[in-house]
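Quick sanity check, L-type lectin-like domain-containing protein:
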Amino acid sequence: MPYIEATNFQIEFEFLVGGKSDGLNGDGFAVWLTSERAENGPVFGNRDRFEGVGIFFDTYANARQPHSFPYVMAMVGDGKTSYDNNNDGLSNRVGGCEANFRGVTTPTKARITYSASSHALNLKLHTKAWGQWDDCFTIMDVKLPSHTYLGFTSHTGEVHDRHDIISVTTSMMSKGENFIGQRRNNAPPPPKKSGFGWYLKFLAVSAIFIAVIAVAFQMSKKNNMRRF
């Protein structure tokens, strides 16, 4: 479980979750950005009452929820609060989204971007089509520990799945290079000027050109009159 020293960073990983297609599967896996190394425990295979951020890729509903499963959610742990397992983390949730990442043919990926300057963490998912990244959530006021440990754990019970982490890449980012800046860069381009606007500009330039010619002609005429 390596730790990350960079204050602004991006983590991208490819994963695979699947199993028998009989409708019984679980429970999911988690990504951890915490102050301590992972320990065996009840929260998707890790300890409870952690300090840092846990992102849970949940495939099994323990209670009736207003959303469908699989579901991805984040919890910010303070080292004291327990994960609300009976309600699928409902009371702990600070961000989440529905995501059909189980048993799909598209390579399933996730991208976590953290900016210490703005204390913001963003998660994007690649689950629908090649090259299509969709925002899952952005959570604000997140202060990760100075030494953040990155880890992955999974949990199975009476029902089970395969939880494979295929690849992980991490990169350090400059202060200005964060997902907020990327949103600004991805803003739609300004509307194109209409043909009528170009026509008015052409008339204005033509008028100036004619005025210059007229002044030059008048000056030339006066000079010729002086000679005679």
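Posting the structure with no commentary besides this: Residues 180-194, 221-228 have pLDDT under 50 and may be disordered.
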